[in-house]
């Protein structure tokens, strides 16, 4: 992928043996995506269960989740240790999925997602070809979320079209670059 090649090129610029650096980048990306997911699950459970004391991010459920990920050799080997673009891709899809879930749960009026979704959609396009399908799906979901939110007029179109335009423009520029 274009994005992983650029990240790898920076690694080669910094050192003659970038394997440890790239492994660290993968571990940070995947770890951040998993932590973001756990944070969403914690927030969701706190609201849904109406707990008087908030759930901790790394309480028993979070700890078990991380242990399961750590001992599942396929997940770790494929997304981190392989140093392929799969860790980057999995992290971007996870970040975008959780961002869409937060948007659906909290509503776009509470948490506008224009900048974060624009960035995620563009990075996804630069990461893997299947981002075309994922980007179309996420933009369709964004349309549904915004329509159901009650936002109308200019704000509706701004929150819908900026991420869609970012996705489309990145795809167009990448396609032109490859020609």
What would you note in describing this structure?
There is one protein chain. With 179 residues, this protein is mostly helical. Helices cover 81% and strands 0% of the residues. It has eight helices and no strands. It has helices at residues 2-14, 19-49, 60-71, 73-81, 86-106, 114-127, 131-149, 153-178. Helix 2 (19-49) packs parallel to helix 5, helix 6 runs antiparallel to helix 7 and helix 7 (131-149) packs antiparallel against helix 8. The radius of gyration is 18 Å and the shape is flat. It starts with a helix and ends with a helix. The relative contact order is 0.10. The model has no long low-confidence stretch (mean pLDDT 85).
User: In DSSP terms, counting alpha (H) and pi (I) runs of 4 or more, how many helices?
Assistant: 8
Question: Overall pLDDT, averaged?
Answer: 85
Query: What share of the residues lie within helices?
Result: over 70%
Give a count of the beta strands, DSSP E runs of length 2 or more: 0
SSE pattern:
HHHHHHHH
Kindly, what is the distance between the CA atoms of the first and last residues, rounded to a whole number of angstroms? Answer: 16 Å
Structural class, please?
A: mainly alpha
Strand content: under 5%
